[in-house]
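Q: What changes when NAI is included in the input?
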Amino acid sequence: MLSRQTLRSVSAARHFSSSASRQTKVAVLGAGGGIGQPTSLLLKQNKLVTSLSLYDIRGAPGVAADVSHVDTASEVKGYAADQLDQALDGAEVIVIPAGVPRKPGMTRDDLFNTNASIVRDLATAIGRVAPKAHILVISNPVNSTVPIVASVLENLKVFDPRRLFGVTTLDVVRASRFLAGIAGTDPADTPVTVVGGHSGVTIVPLLSQSAVGKAVNGEAWEKLVYRIQYGGDEVVKAKDGAGSATLSMAYAAAKFTNQLLRALGGEKGVVAPTFVKSPLFETQGVDFFSTNVELGVNGVEKIHPVGPLSAEEEKLIEACLPELKKNIAKGQSFVSSS
Ligand code: NAI
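A: The predicted holo structure follows.
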């Protein structure tokens, strides 16, 4: 049996550790969905998350009750359709996988009509309730939904480009896994830089910048680039109408969220690929672009340049820019006309 003295010091230590450590509330909007559920589970296992707020137009209280039984310290709360403001209140990081996924034969742009208004409405609530939150957009088409969030926040006069991120982590995860599969290496030792956007030709893997990747040439290079650009289609086809990548996407979302939380907590030198407001191709009318970004206590700290390109990669960038420009403009004009 513990003495009263011991119990007092345990409770004092607890009190000290909870008041001394950072409190971080993370909200997941679309938490009841294919991506939202496993993302919530993975975030429940993250020690940097102290409070997890799960919102969806359906099913979030059930997911929250389930996830809340996992034996980690964070608190989990679920919010129903009419409780968006409560879900957002005090959130420092907001992850958005809300919206419809692709079916076979669809491009990400085909999702625009449905997902554009979902993302616009969520961004409007964020701008009102949690204007200082870091926003991680997963909902497709990312090339357009990120500019939509930016435009909504600009209209509300609360846009800070350091705090808005399109989640392109899955492209980098795939690139690394596919290249490692060819080279017979461990993906952990096979990083690949991927730049551009998050759909088809806008996804530009820079294999020449990787020690392992630069050995891949000719037809093998073409096949690998295609697989990285269209890897999502493999999942959509295999799921045969039941949706797109959810588990690997949740892994990618949790990975990026963890990188951001580490940086927000003061860790230096955290570099992650993400689709952000970027000056790199602004002169060519492309306001958002994904490259490696150094993250810091305020979000985006430093946008890395694309780095040296091979002649083939120059061509990939040439194909990427006009498509990306079109996707960005589509998002921006959706907000200005609605
Ligand atoms: P899903 O249909 O399984 O789940 C979407 C969830 O969003 C549903 O639970 C739905 O009730 C909810 N939702 C709809 N409207 C909402 C609103 N206004 N507020 C809150 N929640 C709302 O779809 P899944 O598979 O989870 O995909 C979600 C999105 O993520 C899709 O747009 C998909 O294309 C995208 N995605 C993005 C990837 C990336 O790399 N960035 C990779 C894979 C998918």
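Observations recorded in class: The chain has two domains: 25-166, 168-337.
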